[in-house]
Write a structure and sequence with these properties.
Blueprint: E1 13-20, E2 23-28, H1 38-54, E3 60-64, H2 75-90, E4 95-100, H3 102-106, H4 108-114, E5 126-128, H5 132-144, E6 149-156, H6 171-186
Parallel strand pairs: 2-5, 3-4, 3-5
Antiparallel strand pairs: 1-2, 1-6
Helix pairs in contact: 1-2
Length: 200
């Protein structure tokens, strides 16, 4: 509330950098917005693209759902479809697609069947969850079952770098998030383009 969000940003959100060996992905929002509407979800996607670039990830953004291109129905699906359209309208330069199930977003063979012709499906590296429940569960499953290191949450959209730590964090988590926050502070103009090296 003191630092406030950047101009044209209406809310902050929390993204996790997921790292396993040379693999690097971004999950958002897993920490702040409980049930974002379509406009909020679009803004989260755009801010997550900025964060991804900070970590050297050229964003290919998947708007996640339990449906892929009309395979399922419901208010949540409609929200993700609308959020994708809004994000496209606001940032036509970004590679973003939805609604996509995770397998269609991540697995090339599944993408070819479920979302042929998509420039994101099967190769996504930024995953936008439809709500905090899915995001929080998703990153913790990737961390505990998939062996990924979850760094964050990195708070997005603020005028100054402020980041958060889970109550379940360890010393290594504190170290990594401290490095990220310091890099953001040193390079505010570009949000601290951060080449992850030792310790990541």
């Amino acid at each position: 509330q003191i630092i406030k969000t950047r101009p044209n940003v209406t809310r902050t959100s929390g993204a996790f950098l997921m790292v396993r060996g040379t693999e690097r992905y971004l999950f958002g929002d897993c920490a702040i917005n409980i049930n974002p509407d379509a406009e909020a979800l679009a803004e989260i996607a755009i801010n997550s693209a900025i964060t991804a670039k900070m970590f050297g990830i050229e964003p290919k953004i998947a708007m996640l759902s339990y449906s892929t291109k009309g395979s399922g129905f419901g208010e949540s699906v409609d929200k993700v479809v609308e959020a994708t359209k809004i994000a496209h309208d606001l940032r036509p330069d970004l590679e973003i697609d939805g609604e996509l199930q995770f397998d269609a977003a991540f697995v090339p063979e599944t993408a070819a069947l479920k979302a042929p012709g998509s420039n994101v499906a099967g190769q996504a590296n930024v995953f936008i969850f439809p709500g905090i429940e899915a995001g929080n569960i998703g990153y913790k499953m990737a961390e505990r079952l998939g062996g990924f290191a979850a760094v964050g949450p990195v708070l997005q959209g603020l005028n100054k770098p402020v980041n958060d730590l889970s109550r379940g964090c360890n010393a290594d988590d504190v170290y990594k998030l401290t490095l990220i926050t310091a890099a953001q502070a040193l390079h505010p103009s570009d949000l601290g383009l951060f080449p992850l090296g030792r310790g990541f």
